[in-house]
Amino acid sequence: MMAYWLFKSEPDVFSFDDLIAKGDKGEQWDGVRNYQARNNMRAMKLGDRGLFYHSNIGKEVVGICEVVALAHPDSTADDPKWECVDIKAVARVVRPVTLDDAKVEPRLSNMVLVNNSRLSVQPVADDEWDVVLELAGGTRAL
């Protein structure tokens, strides 16, 4: 069964367009140095989908990505305890969904993004996924 996630990135460091440019091979989601976020990546399966969220600038969901490689050592870490998955871009959202949009939507009141916006890799419940895509007006192919 597919699980859903949210991946946060500062768009001036690595944006959704940067991920799109990586093509089908995708990119490792490196640099995560938080145990909870790492453990979330360890729980991911191939084909799981994620919301790509631009943090700091925009603070909005801008695209959909997919896990294409299971958790493995993060090549940017000196310590093998840090792991990451690889993801690829699969679609843009029609309309970005901002953090403010999520905070005022009652159906997202329990979403991790709303309650712990600092966590860089977080789970998204099935119903939350559906609501975010509804607010986004759906997706469009790359």
From TrEMBL:
InterPro entries recorded: 5hmC_binding (IPR052181), EVE_domain (IPR002740), PUA-like_sf (IPR015947), THYN1-like_EVE (IPR047197)
CDD domains (UniProt xref): EVE
Span of domain EVE: 3-135
Domain of life: Bacteria
This protein's name: EVE domain-containing protein
Source organism per UniProt: Paracoccus litorisediminis
